[in-house]
Amino acid sequence: MDFSDPLLRELLNALSDSMGHAVLGDAVFEEAHFQGAAPFAEASFAGKAWFGKAKFSGAAEFRFVKFDGPARFRGAHFAGKAHFDQVSFERGVRFENAQFDAEASFTDARFVGDAWFDKVDFGAAVWFERAEFSQQVRFPDTQFHEPALFDEAKIDGEARFDHGLFHRKASFDQVLFGGAASFEGARFDGMARLDQTRFADHASFAGARFNDASQIGALVCARTLDLSGAIFTLPVTLQIAAGELKCARTQWESTATLQVRYARVNLAGAVLSAPLDVTAHPVPFMTHSGRAVDESLLSGRDEAVQVVSVRGLDAAHLVLTDTDLSNCQFRGAFHLDQIRIEGRITFAKVPKGIRRRFRICPVRWSQRRTVAEEHYWRAQNADQAPNPDGTAKRLWRTGPDHDDPARTPDPDDVTAVYRQLRKAFEDSKNEPGAADFYYGEMEMRRHDRDNTSRSERGLLHVYWLLSGYGLRASRAAGWLTAAMITTVLLLMGLGLPQNSPRQEASGNVPAGGGHVTFTIDKDDPQNPTHDRFTDKRFEKALNVTLNSVIFRSSGQDLTTTGTYIEMGSRLLEPVLLALAVLAVRGRIKR
Fold first, then answer.
1. Which long-range contacts (C-beta less than 8 Å, at least 24 apart) are formed by 563-572?
2. Partners of 246 in the beta sheet?
3. Which of 40, 27, 129, 125 is nearest to 70 (CA)?
4. How many helices and strands (H and E) does the chain possess?
5. Average pLDDT of 368-396?
6. Would you state the pLDDT for residue 573?
């Protein structure tokens, strides 16, 4: 049915109340054609309002309209401007497949029921600023050809913008999403503004494409923010405060800076074509006006940023700054030896306290930085109780596949991880930082029964026992002290003769004078029989031992047993001294 401008005005005047506002019950305008303006401003629809497939040739005026019943605009065509400012939809509204050729404004609109805008085509700018959505709001497969502004909107229910196409600017500044929000597969060809946007539930941008975004955030998400499979084509800075951040298979086609607070970051399978810097931001993000961004959705959470996986990622372009790597899985990353790890980095520690090996020998783990894969293997190998978060400090962390030995890293896998991380630290001139990874590499080789021969494992056991692979100066110094004390005691008891051998000279003087020839002889050293442990003998034994440490002969007379003791001392103690010096050098060299 066609409604000319005069006819529609006459109809609405006939239905007006004393205030001049039209009051309609059930209103069915399906497939109606409004040839001029549609002046429904300040009208009230007490029943259902059906505008399915209606065509508005002129301006559609729905300002301040109240829809008490369900409203339907499926397939409607708005050729002129559409004004829905401060409209109230009490029972939901549907705009599926509607087309807006000119500007559309829903500023300060109130959607009490569901609001469906599936496959809507907005040909011009659209405003949803300060709009309130109490229930579900849907914009899947919707096209926005000109700027789409949702600034300061409030969405209490689920919000779906899946596969939406934003050709120009898309602004969601200061929007509060109370329910789950999904932008999966959406494409942002223009500027994407998400400054001070807050998500009280999960938020997903999986598969979204950002073609012209240089700054995103600050975003605040109380639970999981999913960027898996998203594509960023230009240099971009993202500021994100979230409980968890998923960047699995995310593609960064240019340089990017990811400033994060609170989150557990998963970078598994991310594609880096240029450097990506993942940084733990130490203080709340700031707004343009200098105020701190509201992070109350994350109150009570630990502010430490954890990177939990870089598996399947080309680490040559990855920079990690001030992050917690205590539960990070490195196995499967490419070019891990080229990763850059900077700032205050936290790795997992070995269990604290003393344990009993074979329930007899007390053993204390030497404190060092470790990777999560070593924890997973040791916990699985020891058949340990679950400890996934490392809360039990006396136990190793257990991995996600703790009950499946086939999926748990073996020593050979962990050796490769340590070797590459060690090289990365050495290349950055951080040799003290690389020392722990060298220790871990040696530990895994020592425990690798499949790829390390028995003789090599035996040598590694000795190397570990004597000096902690040349990295435990105290251990080497302890063995050196013990060896010196043993040498001194053995020399005092068996090595020094009872008395210093005396020299005797004998010769004949020719009767007629001339040259005198003397023969000098010396008694063989006699084994001691009494008074072995005296101060004088201690001084001599100590002199011999100290000279042995620096591989020099003391010139002291010794028994046959003492000679062999000195030979052993000169062989062993310089080695222990070298190991102690090497361990100190490895810890302080930069």
1. 563/495, 565/487, 565/490, 565/491, 565/494, 565/495, 566/487, 566/491, 566/495, 568/487, 569/483, 569/484, 569/487, 569/544, 569/545, 572/483
2. 226, 266
3. 27
4. 8, 53
5. 87
6. 81
